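Q: Given only this backbone (495 positions), what sequence would you predict?
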């Protein structure tokens, strides 16, 4: 059961170690951005299956001046990607799925623009944990066990095979990488000796990547998608190449099709989402990808009604939606509230390891056929599942995020429903049982969910549908409520 933490300063993360470090930075006088970099680095060590220097990162923040800041740092495919080979093999892991990692760039942007503490101070807790060690929890151990059948043939096995709960973990290679970045600067990862070593290690594992691919990486300040709904609420999401628009389209359907007519425990509420889920993901797969390759103005397609217009007359192919793995966290200093998400795509990513860190398989997100905005190509960014939902009304701001892969828009929507349709507080909104469409004829439900009566639906009960964090800030008092999902090892701390 969720237990919220209240305070002017705090953090909600997937690890007690990261939450502790974030709060210590805040209490030392650092701001939310300082704490976010420190927490991100710690999570990269203690939950290496979910993100790190081998993966990407995104940020959505409500600033102290009432502006909304969004930053996207997702990498492109290497210039040497063989797109025809990719389409022939349709890989899920391995060297063809590797893209340039963006997280170090996000650290650099945050540190240079907003942090008050030096980078070496912010990376110190992660360096100490990597060098001196920490105790693995069930989350890391379970990911190691479930990943072994796929990843044991890769370099992954040398670092992360056979982890048991309570195992004492050290990664001194990762510690050394972080030490160099702390002393020489974040851009060493893209343009220094570290970059040269990184490229060399990936090339040895079969990735057709060059030093120039690393040098050319740039994250971007992006304009968040903005949708105003009933009661003056304004919703924000990350733009393409992310699937953030899919969340907004789903939430708009609540109002366009009047979800409010269903009681929370009414099985008709679940059937309500069957067609909507099919449509919003079909739109995503047909029209969304690297914004340099898209043919539509995404700002005109933020609602479900516009989705139906766009899909009119088109033949749709149902696809399986994968959960993936990610770590999302939120930090607030009483003024700014920062939502931060980092990922490798699948648990431990591609199976490749460089500089002590797992390398993402984000290239798996490319479409598996040609002719689409998201079809694979060299120097192209794949469709990204990472996104963050921000909500603002006259009295409060909300940041909602989760682990969930393709499921993320549905998870965001479940939480939004719980709070704004069914009147739940953040803790109850997280606790409430969730349901997720894996495809149009198959649905996952958590215990306590009313079973839909549609005979066309296959229903499978699961224990956990995504891991959610919420921070709600009262704009008058500055006090925030921090809530972490009990489905994972996360914890919220505040002061």
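A: Predicted residues:
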């Amino acid at each position: 059961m969720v237990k919220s933490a209240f305070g002017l300063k705090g953090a909600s993360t997937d690890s007690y170690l990261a939450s502790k470090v974030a709060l210590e930075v805040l209490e030392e006088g650092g701001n939310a951005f300082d704490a976010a970099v420190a927490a991100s680095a710690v999570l990269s060590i203690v939950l290496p299956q979910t993100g790190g220097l081998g993966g990407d990162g995104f940020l959505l923040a409500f600033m102290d001046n009432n502006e909304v800041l969004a930053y996207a740092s997702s990498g492109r495919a290497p210039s040497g990607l063989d797109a025809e080979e990719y389409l022939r093999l349709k890989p899920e892991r391995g060297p063809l799925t590797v893209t340039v990692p963006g997280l170090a760039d996000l650290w650099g942007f945050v540190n240079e623009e907003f942090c008050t503490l030096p980078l070496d101070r912010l990376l110190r807790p992660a360096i100490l944990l990597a060098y001196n060690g920490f105790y693995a929890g069930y989350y890391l151990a379970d990911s190691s066990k479930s990943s072994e059948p796929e990843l044991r043939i890769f370099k992954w096995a040398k670092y992360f095979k056979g982890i048991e709960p309570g195992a004492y973990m050290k990664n001194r290679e990762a510690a050394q990488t972080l030490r160099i970045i702390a002393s020489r600067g974040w851009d060493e990862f893209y343009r220094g000796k570290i970059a040269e070593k990184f490229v060399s290690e990936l090339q040895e594992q079969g990735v057709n990547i060059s030093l120039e691919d690393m040098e050319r990486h740039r994250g971007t300040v992006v304009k968040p998608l903005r949708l105003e709904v009933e009661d003056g609420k304004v919703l924000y999401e990350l733009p393409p190449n992310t699937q953030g628009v899919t969340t907004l389209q789903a939430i708009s359907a609540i109002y366009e099709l009047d979800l409010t007519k269903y009681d929370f425990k009414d099985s008709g509420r679940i059937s309500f989402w069957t067609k909507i889920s099919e449509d919003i993901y079909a739109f995503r797969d047909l029209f969304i990808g690297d914004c340099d390759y898209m043919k539509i103005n995404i700002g005109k397609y933020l609602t479900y009604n516009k989705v139906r217009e766009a899909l009119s007359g088109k033949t749709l192919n149902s696809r399986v939606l994968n959960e993936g793995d990610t770590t999302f966290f939120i930090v607030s200093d009483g003024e700014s509230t920062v939502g931060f998400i980092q990922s490798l795509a699948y648990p431990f990513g591609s199976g490749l390891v460089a500089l002590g860190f797992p390398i993402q398989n984000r290239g798996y997100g490319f479409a598996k056929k040609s002719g689409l905005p998201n079809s694979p190509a060299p120097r192209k960014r794949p469709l990204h599942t990472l996104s963050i939902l921000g909500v603002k009304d006259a009295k409060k701001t909300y940041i909602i995020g989760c682990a969930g892969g393709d499921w993320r828009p549905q998870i965001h929507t479940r939480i939004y429903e719980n709070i704004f349709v069914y009147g739940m507080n953040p803790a109850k909104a997280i606790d409430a049982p969730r349901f997720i469409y894996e495809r149009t004829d198959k649905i996952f439900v958590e215990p306590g969910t009313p079973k839909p009566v549609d005979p066309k639906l296959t229903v499978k009960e699961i224990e956990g549908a995504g891991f959610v964090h919420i921070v709600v800030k009262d704009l008058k008092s500055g006090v925030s409520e921090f809530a972490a999902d009990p489905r994972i090892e996360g914890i919220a701390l505040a002061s």
